[in-house]
Design goal:
There is one protein chain. By secondary structure, this protein is mostly helical. Helices cover about 80% and strands about 0% of the residues. The chain has helices at about 1-10, 10-25, 40-50, 55-65, 65-90, 95-105, 110-120, 125-150, 155-180, 185-190, 195-210, 215-220, 220-245, 250-260, 265-275, 285-305. Helix 3 (about 40-50) crosses helix 9 and helix 3 packs antiparallel against helix 11 (about 195-210).
């Protein structure tokens, strides 16, 4: 099982891409995955994240508060502003604009920690930023989304807040508590967590893409272009910020990956909660889920060759 889990984790980008292509061009093969499952699948991923967390992961907040603060401010300013700017520049309709901005206002995902590890970056900083930003998400994600979209669409801030608490914070807290009380048990199941997480993420992508296949194809290349630009510009701006602040190479890698890779599964989930009448709002998150795993793996290969100096 450990070898299977390692294989799946290693080829996650390829697996997600294949399933996404199948769901897009032959949607009937994936329609059995209901969109109502998305929240529960995301809760499984977040619970798995909680099982890997220890008190020591939060120690960096007190040891290196400046780095965490930089990561937090960068996360909730760079990606939301890039999303807003790209959406306006390309003249997106309200539904797609809402979806792109939701991706931008969400915290970084757990995949960023994996990619930082593969790139020989500062994993402790990556985990610290992901953890803190995720805990801040119930407050900052709805607030920033409202500020950027209040003149365009109606934003249900309270529903977003409650959804993040239910889908993200509660599962992570439960996983964290179980890890604290039954650490030996969680160590035994840790090897299969990548397999479970990849399966859940893949099913989320299958559900969203297959049920919105026609809409995605109707939008043409524009959404794909915006999602790719959003992600890549996040990497670039994050890395340049690290250079301006004269961070070490491992920290620059962690910052770039953390900013560029979003919890797009959460964005997809929130789109259905905050914008129930805007079906297309789920599309950017679904496309981002596929793309950032591919780009993250490619970037990790480039960063790994750059060394640690």
């Amino acid at each position: 099982m450990k070898k299977v889990s390692e294989f799946v984790g290693k080829f996650m980008a390829v697996i997600v891409l294949v399933v996404a292509a199948l769901a897009l061009f032959v949607p009937g093969t994936c329609l059995w995955v209901e969109t109502s499952w998305i929240n529960y699948l995301l809760m499984v991923v977040m619970f798995g994240m909680g099982l890997t967390l220890k008190f020591g992961d939060f120690a960096i907040v007190f040891k290196r508060p400046k780095d965490i603060l930089i990561g937090c401010v960068a996360q909730f300013t760079i990606m939301p502003l890039l999303a807003f700017g790209l959406g306006k520049a390309f003249g997106l309709d309200p539904a797609l604009l809402a979806g792109v901005i939701l991706v931008g206002t969400c915290p970084g995902g757990t995949a960023s920690n994996v990619m930082t590890y593969l790139s020989k970056g500062d994993v402790a900083l990556s985990v610290g930023m992901t953890s803190v930003n995720t805990l801040l998400a119930p407050f900052l994600t709805p607030a920033i989304t409202y500020l950027l979209l209040k003149t365009t669409v109606t934003v249900d801030v309270m529903s977003m807040f409650l959804s993040i608490i239910k889908v993200v914070i509660v599962p992570i807290a439960l996983g964290f508590i179980i890890n604290k009380l039954w650490g030996k048990f969680t160590e035994k199941v840790a090897d299969v967590l990548p397999l479970i997480s990849v399966a859940a993420i893949t099913l989320i992508v299958a559900a969203v893409v297959s049920h919105n296949a026609e809409r995605i194809l109707e939008t043409g290349a524009i959404v794909f272009v915006i999602v790719i630009l959003h992600n890549v510009l996040g990497y670039v701006v994050g890395y340049l910020l690290g250079r301006v602040l004269k961070m070490t190479m491992p920290r620059k890698k962690a910052l770039a990956i953390e900013i560029g890779m979003q919890n797009s599964g959460l964005a997809t989930s929130l789109a259905g909660t905050a914008f129930p009448d805007l079906a297309m709002a789920t599309v950017p998150g679904a496309i981002f889920s596929v793309w950032h795993n591919i780009s993250g793996a490619l970037l990790a290969n480039v960063f790994r060759r750059m060394g640690e100096e």
